[in-house]
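Q: My labmate handed me this sequence with no annotations at all. I'd like to see what the chain might look like in three dimensions before we decide whether it's worth expressing. Could you predict it?
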Amino acid sequence: MRIREASAQAGYLIVVAVGVALVGLPLAVVRFEWGYACVVLALVAAAVVAGRTFRGRAESDDARPWWKMTTSRRNSIVLGILFALQGISAVATASDSPSPAVVIAGGVVLLAVAALYANSAIRIRLGASTPVA
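A: Here is what I predict for the chain of 133 residues:
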C-alpha cells in the first residue's frame, strides 16, 4: 500500500496524533513510564510506517532503499529537525519528570530517529547510488 495524496498523508498524521493522545495520556495518568514509553514507541512506529508507505507524486511504488525516509531532501531535513528538537527537549527537561531515566531513554530514541532522517537527507543530496561510510 502506498499513500500518495497529501490529504491522505495528513489524515494519517492526524489519526496518529489523536491516537497517541487518546492512549498515551490516560496511560501516563495511571503510570507515567507506561504512557511515556507508549508515546515514544508510537512516534517511532508512525515514522517507520510513513517512511515505508508515503510516496511522492513521481515516485515509483517499488520498495525504497532502507535509508530513504522521505521523497525529498527538504522533507528529511524538516522531520529530522522536528525529531531532534523533541529529543533534545526530552533530555534537557528529564530531571523535572517523575522518571528521568525513562525520559532520557525516550529522548535518545527520538534523537536516533532524527539521525535517520539526517542520513536520508545526506544520501538524497549525494545521490542514491553513492555509498555513505
